Amino acid sequence: MALFQKDDAKRIKASNISKWLLSHGVSSITTDEIATLIGVQKNHVPQRMVSLRRKNEIISPARGLWLPIPPEYMSWGAPPAIDIIDPLMKHLNADYYVGWLSAAEFYGASHHAPQVFQVATSRTLRQKIIGRSRLQFFHREHLSNVPLIHIESKNAMIPISSRETTLLDIANDIAFVGGIDNATNIIIELCDDTFPDIDALINTSRFYPAAAVRRLGFLIETFTDTSNLDKLVEICIERNTATSVLDPIENFVGKTDKRWNIKINREVMPDV
Known about the structure:
By secondary structure, this protein is of the alpha+beta class. Helix content is 35%, strand content 17%. The chain has helices at 17-23, 31-38, 45-48, 50-54, 81-91, 100-106, 163-172, 180-190, 198-205, 210-223, 230-239; strands at residues 29-30, 58-62, 65-68, 96-98, 117-121, 128-130, 133-139, 148-152, 157-161, 244-245, 255-257, 262-264. The protein has a four-stranded mixed beta sheet.
């Protein structure tokens, strides 16, 4: 890459590397590339970056990856998660999409602002705290099959779960979003101004357990001014699996809603 020629090592000091990267529009850089730019062996790079890290001018969110911190985010200790996620996942060689609470917030469903940045990944990764951001990663087998959209961040186009994928993820992973009541709040808000595409919801539902599809259908029909969900009911019937439960963390006790074949094992109390 022309940007990282050895000749540059004659004019870039380690103390200026963050400013130089920002002035050249470079949002991420590897240890090898820094070594070339400042003219040192790559094993000396971490020590050369100590002073810049202390001044919140650069951060290393993963071994071998460095991100310069724009001046407006120095008090945060890192750029925001939306600007970190793409270079981080590319460096880790992992496919991903932003989902759950973080995707719901993008669609305007922010009844309770998320305190985490939630990401579906093709690899198992541990949670990271980077500056003010807490990143949660959830390994997903169906990652390449579900519909996504892309939004523009400062430096990249970021994949985000579609409205329909977001609804199914929330209905499937109740614990990730703060329980059934908060999941219902989010589902209501996601269906408020723009109702999900039923055909897209049905096509995407095949990548999710029957319990998630039934739970979502029941909550949409019960708590929103919905259009007809008969086609989604038919898909649930075709699954022909045992009765599901509304709240997966409660006991299997309660009246069964025969239309959705789901046991109402607790009262749902949304507050929107």
